[in-house]
Each structure stands twice: as C-alpha cells, then as structure tokens.
Specification:
alpha/beta; eight-stranded parallel barrel; 11 helices
Length: about 500
C-alpha cells in the first residue's frame, strides 16, 4: 500500500485544497481462508431419537473450527421416529444444543429436516404433522437464526429432496395441493428474512404462479419470492442435472437455466454432485464446475459426495479453485479518505472493490468504517448494502460522506473496514466477520480489514469535507463514454479496461 495526497473540491470559482489519503491494495486470489456463509460443506445426517437427539454434538470433528478448508456443515435431522407424534422436548432441546456447538466453533450450517432416508421407505409425514412439527420448531429456528445460513425446504420425500414420496405425489416435482401446504407452513413458521431453498426451481415457479425471476428491486424485499432459493443435489449430472432445469428427468430447458442464473443473484444456490457410479460421466463433466458455479452463483457445495467427481477436483487442482471463489470473495482495489475531520462533522469515503467470487452475499450485513487508536475505537455504519456487490469480477463501490459522532475524542485514528454478523449474539466474534481477499489487510483478532490509512479528528478541522471523490460514479460522464452488456442477468458497464456492476445505469 502507498499513501499520496491530491487536490479536490470546487466551491463556486475558488479551488479549495482538501487533503486526502489515496490507497491502493493488492488482491490475493490464491489463499484459501474461511469466510462465513460460503464454501465447501460436509453433511451430518441421521435419525434422531429421545436417547440420541443430536446431529452436531458428539458428531462434528473438533478440527472444523480451526480448518480453513471447510466452512459449513449441512445438518439433516431425520424425524422418522416421529412421523405421527409431537417432537419430544429432548429433540427440541438437542437441536438448541447442536446450534450452540456451532456458535462455540464459529460456524454456521445449512439446515434440513426429513422423515425418510431410503428409497424403499417413501412414507413421510402428512401435511398436518409437518405443520405441527414446524410450529414446534418455530421458536427454535428464530432463536438460532444467527448460526443458520439457509433452510432447505426438506420434510417432503426421501432425504427431504421433494422426490420419492407417497404423501406428496410419488416421483414428481410438481406443486400438488399437499406440497403447496408444506410451502405455506414453511413461510408461516420461519423467520421472515430466512431463505428457504428448494430442490427444483420449477417448484418456485409453480407455487408462485410466476416464471419470471427476481428483479433488482424485488431482491431482498422480504417477499416469499425473494426468499426462495435453490439447492441442486444433482450438480453436473446429465439431463438438465436430473430435472433441475426441466419439467422431468429428461428435460434441460435453457429458459429454466436463465431463470436460475438471474434468480440466484438475489437468493442462494448450492448443493452437491451425485455422479457416483459412472466414472465416464465424472471424467466428462467435472471440468465444468467453475463455469457452472459462476453462471448459477453457487455459494456452497458438498465436499464428500459423490467421490468420482470430488477426487477429480482434488487431483486437478479445481477443488482449491472452487474453494477460493465459491460464494463471495471481496477484493479491495483502491480507496480515498479524508485525512481530517471534526467531531460532529463528516468524512469522505470512497472504496472501489471487486467481488471475484461466484455469488453475492445474501443475508443482510452492515459494513462499518472503524476508527481505532491505542485508547479509543469507533465503528461508523455505512449505508452501502454488501448484498448488492455482484459477483464474477464485477466492480462495486462504497461512496459516502460518513458522519463523525460529536463525542469522538480528538486524535489520530487508523481506518479499518469491518463487516461483522448482524446478530448481536455473534457480532463481536471475529470468526463471523468477512475477510477481504487482499494481502496484509486481515486482523484475525478483531475481524477488521486494514485500510492502510489514518484520519485526524480535530476541533479545528472543517465540518464539511468538500465534494466526494468521483471514482466510478462518473461512469456516465461526458468525457468517459461507456458500453453496457447483459451477462448472466447482470448489467455490466464497461469503461476503458474496467467493468462495473452498476445496476440501472444507462450509458452515455
């Protein structure tokens, strides 16, 4: 990093000299490290009982908390012992204890519930019992939302995959009357901002009676449509990933693929490959993973099933590539900050960044500029919405005038970018903060990203920092014509050798 000074600001006909820090950063897209809510997964599944209510406690390796390779377990509770009776307190309390284990390890999970785990047993619970179990689970899901990344719809069919089911239409993906009831019960009994992932995107379309994907304005709105994501448990398989992209197992519909590519800019997508016994198919398809994950915005994927593909990923080096880029990966590029500000005044902040991951961040999260010296620390919230920092090397920016609290003590402060979890229970746990993919920025003890700049807070500094630096905000400027293209549902603005994901812009 290096610091320079520049002249900025124009007031009527007089040029005002405003000192500011300009910093550049070095991207790191080779180091594998953990970040919350993305990455490779391992599944913990099994039938729970009163005497054995846990799926995490006593089952998860203690190495998980210290491993950079794995970031999330997929936790599947099999309620097969309770298809037609209430869930006992031992099960509900055991679920809470499992979630506490995740907190202690600094992890989150992908969560699913089911009633059967064998194709020979296609009898799951009736809609009435699913409703009752969800009503029992409701307060526990809300209390543990901090460590639940997403909820897979589950409950219906073998493994909760909405297939192989007696009560909900055998070997069908359609939204029958009973399936519609389960979807309604899911929305009624889960937190209003929890994503629910469905095995087939066609389920979303038929339930909503709407085949159009989310728009930017609909994304993250809290509507049912904005909460319905995808999980593809036949990744890279033939026939449209075994019905994922079509109306049956033999269909591969380009329109459905485009639906998922656009929808999953705003709702999560993940799953696992299932090419288990066909080495020829595994050999043919495993190389397609990076382009498929980038196109359909994968944030998580199973690391142990199915092994013919996983082994090829590991042997070829693709496993590490996917581990680096799956989900979001933010790279700081350059930044400009006011060098001085007054208590109760404002500071200029301009940060240019790329998301070199395959997917956005989906759950809400506030970014902060942190002012820190040896005696004081202040976290100043930004208005920027990190969920809008779109993927596949698209550019984004933070460009704001940040208010300095009136009670900030005078002195010189180092600047950091902090993106903690939004839940107070884990907000101050650095393991849940987002690390940027740059060299020499991460502080694992605080969860801060070092911005390489300082600011002096002084009562003699001006309250008004002057005009914000332009950065990429002048993308429509008369002296910088640009072009726009639509790529995978994203509006990409190109100016010179840079691309920006500035949604809604028209080019000059």
């Amino acid at each position: 990093m290096k610091k320079i000074f520049f002249l900025a600001g124009l007031l009527t006909a007089t040029i005002i000299s405003l000192q500011a820090s300009s910093v550049s950063y070095t991207a790191d897209n080779t180091t594998i490290f953990k970040n919350p809510e993305r990455g490779f997964t391992e599944e913990l599944n099994g039938k729970v009982s009163v005497s054995s209510p846990y799926r995490i406690k006593n089952h998860i390796s203690s190495n998980w908390g210290n491993s950079d390779k794995m970031t999330m377990p997929v936790v599947l509770y099999n309620f097969g012992n309770f298809k037609s009776q209430d869930l006992p307190d031992a099960i509900l309390n055991g679920f809470d204890e499992d979630m506490q284990v995740l907190r202690e390890m600094g992890l989150k999970c992908v969560l699913r519930f089911a009633y059967t785990e064998r194709e020979s047993d296609k009898v799951d619970a009736t809609p009435e019992w699913v409703k009752r179990h969800l009503e029992q689970l409701k307060p526990h899901l809300a209390a543990n939302q901090d460590v639940i990344y997403v909820l897979e719809a589950g409950f219906v069919g073998v493994w909760g995959e909405w297939y192989y089911s007696v009560n909900y239409g055998n070997e069908t993906q359609h939204v029958t009357a009973n399936r519609r009831k389960v979807i309604e019960y899911l929305f009624e009994n889960t937190p209003e901002d929890m994503f629910i992932l469905f095995r087939y995107p066609m389920i979303q379309q038929e339930y909503l009676r709407d085949k159009t994907p989310l728009t930017s304005s609909e994304g993250f709105s809290g509507s049912q449509k904005a909460r319905m994501g995808c999980h593809n448990d036949a990744f890279l398989h033939n026939w449209g990933n075994m019905g994922t992209y079509g109306s049956d197992d033999d269909d591969d519909d380009p329109k459905m693929r485009q639906y998922v590519a656009t929808q999953c800019l705003y709702t999560p997508n993940g799953g696992e490959t299932n090419i288990d016994d066909d080495d020829a198919l595994a050999e043919k398809r495993y190389v397609e993973a990076p382009s498929e994950m980038a196109t359909y915005h994968w944030s998580f994927c199973g690391s142990t099933y199915a092994m013919p593909v996983i082994k090829r990923w590991r042997n070829s080096g693709l496993f590490d590539t996917l581990n680096i880029h799956m989900g979001y990966r933010y790279n700081l590029h350059s930044a400009q900050f006011s060098d001085q500000a007054a208590p109760g005044g404002k500071m200029n902040v301009l940060v240019e960044l790329r998301n070199s991951g395959y997917a956005p961040l989906y759950n809400a999260r506030t970014a902060y500029i942190v002012l820190k010296n040896n005696s004081k620390t202040y976290a100043l919230p930004l208005n920027a919405d990190p969920r809008r920092w779109l993927p596949n090397d698209a550019w984004s920016q933070i460009r704001e005038q940040v208010a300095i609290p009136a009670d900030v003590a005078e002195g010189t402060y180092h600047l950091y970018l902090w993106m903690p979890d939004r839940h107070e229970s884990i907000k101050n746990d650095p393991r849940y903060a987002i690390r940027f993919g740059n060299t020499n920025v991460w502080d694992q003890n605080t969860g801060y990203n070092d911005l390489g700049a300082t600011i002096t807070i002084s009562n003699s500094a001006p309250q008004d920092p002057g005009a914000l630096p332009e950065g990429i905000s002048n993308i429509q400027g008369e002296k910088a014509p640009c072009t726009k293209t639509l790529r995978d549902g994203q509006l990409i603005i190109t100016k010179g050798d840079k691309e920006y994901n500035v949604l809604g812009h028209s080019c000059f």
